[in-house]
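Below is how a single chain appears once it has passed through the pipeline. First comes the sequence as given, then the structure the pipeline wrote out for it. We keep one example in the README because the format questions we get most often are answered faster by looking than by reading.
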Amino acid sequence: MKIITNISGTRSIEVTDGHLKTIKKYKLFCNLIDSNGIIDESVMEKLRLNVRALLETEGTENKELMDLCFDVIYHPNMKAIGLSNLVKYYAEHLFSDEPENEGKTDCEAQA
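Resulting structure:
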């Protein structure tokens, strides 16, 4: 699935099921977004710092996390609007695959 990463819709990033599974495995979106629900560049930076910390503890031998970094998180086209679209796509994917998660927050569904 391609997610749009800019307002004009001219840039996109390919997101695979493997990327979504890695996000779920490491609970990367859990407590990422403030209560105001706004995804801006500060949220993007928070995600990158969280991933960087994981890489420091897990090591760079973790192929799935490294793929997520190279292909999505640190992709040159990834901006706040792309992250917003990724979060929406992830939520749709999570709740469509597991109907029992409907109505739960991301962190509750992943628990």
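The CA atoms of residues 91 and 106 lie 7 Å apart.

See the next section for the split statistics.
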